[in-house]
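Q: How would the structure tokens look for this protein?
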Amino acid sequence: MSNKRTRKKHNAAVAAILALTMIAGIILTLTGEVMTVRADTPYNTFTVDGYGSVSATQTAYLPYETITKIGEEAMSGPTDFTILDDGTIYVLDSGNRRVLVSNLEGEYLGSFGEDVLAGPRGIYVTEDRTCYVADRDAKLVQVFDADGRLINTYGRPDVPMYGETNDFLPLKIVVNSSGTMYVICESNTNGIVEISPVDGGTFLGYFGTNATNSSILTIIWRAILTDAQRAKMRSNIPSTPDNMAIDEKGIIYTVTRGEENDTLKRLNIAGVNMMEPDTYEQVPAAVAVGNHDNCFIVSQQGFIYEYNNEGELLFVFGGKDDGQQRIGLSTKAEAIQVGSDDKLYVLDSDKAQIQVFEPTEFTGYLHEALYLFSKGRYQESKVPLTQVLTMNNLFDYANMAMGKALYKEEDYEGALRYARLSKDLDTYSDAFWEIRNNWLRRHLTVIVIMILLLVALNAVIRQLDKRRHVLDGPRAALSKLGEIRLIRQIRYVFYFMRHPIDGCYGIKREGRVSVLSANVLLACIMILYVVNKYFCGFLFKTVREGSYDVLSDLGLILVVLVLVVGCNYLMCTINDGEGKLKDIYCSFIYSFGPYIVLMPFIILLSHAVTYNEEFFVDFGKFIAITWVAVLIVIAIREINNYTVGETVKIILLTLFTILIVCLLAFILYVLWAQVFDFLQSVVREAVYRIGS
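A: Here is the predicted structure in token form.
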């Protein structure tokens, strides 16, 4: 259900989520006041809407309980755990080099591995209770049966394909239904080690290797350096995954620090990523697979992210404990698991405990809708979706899912409405195409008849005008209107567009335009800019619906215009340019003629096309911008009587001058802010002393 076109790299959104969550936690701690809906939560729950903005939503999960001990056994530096469908929990008690077994209530059921494990870091237990432990210090994968007896070990693959210099330091492990092991090894950048249990352990190769990140500049730089210089550069090697999980179909989920949008991956059996998250966590600790085609990430600071199966963020909640040992907050999260009852379990290695979170009614309805929708049961999914929207009609994911469900039922008007609410541009485009297609089929005959009538009417009027001159009166009126000086000057923009060299001569030598006519055209430019920004077709709108900041937009246009014209006039004056300030200003404004002429048609077209025809809108904008740029270059050259080389020089100098002016303005702003803060502090001090 992901909307690829609205995806951006929501780094700012994620940072804002973390900041808002931490601030909310601090405020709640200091004031001790909580809202009724979050009476038991020391954190707020957030989501990201279709515009990439952070917004608060209903509490998704409530802190339920904390498991601090397994029976009477205390844990020491636990690093991993797993939960079976029957509720049996296996905790890797790494500090004590053992595996503790308990039920969901934390009752002690047994332990094993005390005399075998050396430095265990990861654990995985199959449904038949075979336990696989990634023992880093022993450099082995140790396998125990249901009774805790060691039955097998797997060490470093002794094959050249593994890599002669690669050590075997297993950190995390998962196993598929056929017994194939997937092992994350420390410092092994080739990917996940895939080992078959056949013949005592057969190395099958590397799986899910992360890509390297090389910019074009880096590639060129490496190509021109010597071997010695390249050796001193930082090696461009792929990152090693930090953790992973596997679902019942054998699909593997991985998390890797520093990979941005590839932080979370969903890998099929061929190692191809099938997920593109719309947000990412900078320092993920672990990943878990949910029960409803969803997945979860927990960060080292304890923030928990829930995604659907295509990487769209549903919720983020939790956070870092401030030292008050509050339930629901973590110090150093290491692992996350999902129970068969949808409860979340988060292992905190510093606290040596497991935090348990219970889904709210709101989340339960959403999960039900997720499951039904993923199975193609769109009609049934509408019932829980309606419940979700009753609780929060602005929850984007529910609106998006409802829109898709209605589209599958061929209710295109309803799908269009919900897609607009959720900013789901793909569904909006598909629904609009169907609506437009149906409208055309119903009215095509009428449209053709109207076109034929207009053609016939035009022919009749032409004949009447030829014989009886019926259009002489309107022609005379238009001719008289065209003789008005201001109208004539405005109409000059069409001549300037077609003949820019002669047009510049008319501006400079013949006085064919005035500052007033240029100002009128500037007003047209500003109006078109505002209309295009706020009232273009929904598929091409880049601002939030209902959000208007017209004064700022107009002010920005004026500031940019003054900056460009002023800096260009300054550079032209210094470099023997012949243009006057009035000529430069008017030529710049008249160079925007293509924008004034083409933009109304582009705006109208944006309301009539879908994504299949968006090329026409994009191409129209490209033509308008390119045409304007060419006219500006010609205007600079002709108004100042420059050569081509001098024109290029002036353009570069103008851009440099603009940069310097912006830098100076920023410095003055910072200095004034400091002076203002100083004056404020002086006034406060004076008021304080007078009052005391």
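Residues 644-691 form the longest helix (48 residues).

The two ends are 64 Å apart (CA to CA).

Upvote if useful.
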